[in-house]
Amino acid sequence: MNKRTLLSLLLTAALLLTACGGQKPEATTPIPETTVPAVTTESPAVPGTTAAPETTGVPGTTAAPETTAAPETTAAPETTAVPETTTAPETAPPPETTSFPVITRWTRDNYPRVDGATAMYPMSLEIAKALLGLNDEEAEAFIVHHTTANAYYNLIDRTVDIIFVSEPSNDILRRAENAGVTFEMAGIGRDGFVFVINQENPVDSLTIEEIQNIYTGEITNWSEVGGENIPILAYQREPNSGSQNLMEKMVMKDLQMAEAPEDLILDTMSGLIDQVASYENSRSALGYSIYLYAKDQYVKDSIKFLSINGVYPTDESIANGSYPLSKIVYAVFREDEPEGSPVRQLVEWLRTEEGQKAVEAGGYVGYQE
Hints:
Radius of gyration: 52 Å
Oligomer: single chain
Number of domains: 2
Helix content: 40-55%
Largest sheet: 8 strands, mixed
Low-confidence stretches: 20-95
CATH class of the largest domain: Alpha Beta
CATH topology of the largest domain: D-Maltodextrin-Binding Protein, domain 2
CATH superfamily of the largest domain: Periplasmic binding protein-like II
Strand content: 5-15%
């Protein structure tokens, strides 16, 4: 090798060393190739390539709402049909399963608590005598009636179980409604509503229209209905009494009765009959009562019944309905009385032939629907 060639090689080597910072070319060249590119490509890749949003596809692809279908697939409200399947109140009602034994022997312990109208007291006695085997004295000590209105009040208050009465007044119906009580009424006999005058009065018959005009105050003198020229003393009963209710519903209907002086309003049926029967009122008095009561229970020879619309009240005319003021006698009890209870068994018995005999023994006409 000549000097020129050697010098050229040395110069080239020196230039290479200067360019590489004095390091060997073999050791420094891999560094920029392996470390620098690797750091710049791997570390920025997380924010730069946004790999997390792509790989975590839950928010990006909205897979969570689709796959987490808890509200849709967890059909708890649909499958947990507890209210629908737990039908205990419907399938196992105690009132329906509780049954009452058929009463083959009535005693004072299983006999319902009874009340009723004054006029129906004899019938109530006959019923108790027939079922319990009581004599007259025992029956009278056992059975108590407190008049129609009070009997209804006691039934509403649940101090008695069944009452023997005529139909209730509107005031009593409102009182029952306010107490949450509904009545069930079973016809067991028939009676009549009658008008009574003194035997000294020559009048024998009145029409319903004439009676209405008397009690509204349009007719005030007996001469206007075929009698003498004397004023009419038209007696009434106290409000809510059985006979007053019948007067308002059967006779007056929608007409308003004239306001009567206090001395013409009587609080008992016997008191009214006494006034009509008295000598002082012999030709002036007019009143009303229950057929059975005036015929059999509180008899006064000085009074007489009036024919109404030409029909006289008798057992036959009341039974066949030809007497225009015939009425039904009811056994009334609360509608919520359980099936098969002693009350309902008593009512069923009253509809039998034996029961009807007891009703008739009490003075009433047998019941026919």
